[in-house]
């Protein structure tokens, strides 16, 4: 019975295995690059949301302080 290992020469078999390993590493690098980029974008969106919520809270507190001062006749 013929198998791939008996049909290919040792050099061809080594090249096939090493090409497969290189391809796998290339795909992993691409996936990690994409993940890193996505994480950076998510962090930017979350930072923007946090800053907007913080700003809204500060604005609300200032309005309450000003309203209280106005009610006291200041």
From TrEMBL:
Say yes or no: keyword Nucleotide-binding present: no
Q: May I ask which residue range the UniProt record assigns to the signal sequence?
A: none
Q: Where in the cell is it found?
A: Membrane
Database matches in Pfam families: ATP-synt
GO cellular-component terms in the record? Answer: mitochondrion; proton-transporting ATP synthase complex
| Family statement | Belongs to the ATPase gamma chain family.
Q: Which GO terms describe its molecular function?
A: proton-transporting ATP synthase activity, rotational mechanism
Per the record's keyword annotation, is NAD included, yes or no?
Answer: no
Keywords for this protein: ATP synthesis, CF(1), Hydrogen ion transport, Ion transport, Membrane, Transport
What name appears for this protein in its UniProt entry?
A: ATP synthase subunit gamma, mitochondrial
Query: InterPro entries from the entry?
Result: ATP_synth_F1_ATPase_gsu, ATP_synth_F1_gsu, ATP_synth_F1_gsu_CS
Concerning PROSITE patterns, the annotation shows: ATPASE_GAMMA
**Membrane topology of this protein:** Peripheral membrane protein
């Amino acid at each position: 019975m013929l198998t791939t290992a008996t049909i290919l020469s040792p050099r061809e078999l080594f090249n096939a295995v090493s090409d497969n390993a290189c391809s796998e590493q290339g795909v992993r690098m691409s996936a990690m690059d994409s993940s890193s980029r996505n994480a950076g974008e998510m962090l930017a969106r979350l930072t923007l949301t946090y800053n907007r919520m913080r700003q809204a809270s500060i604005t609300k507190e200032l309005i309450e302080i000003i309203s209280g001062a106005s009610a006291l006749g200041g």
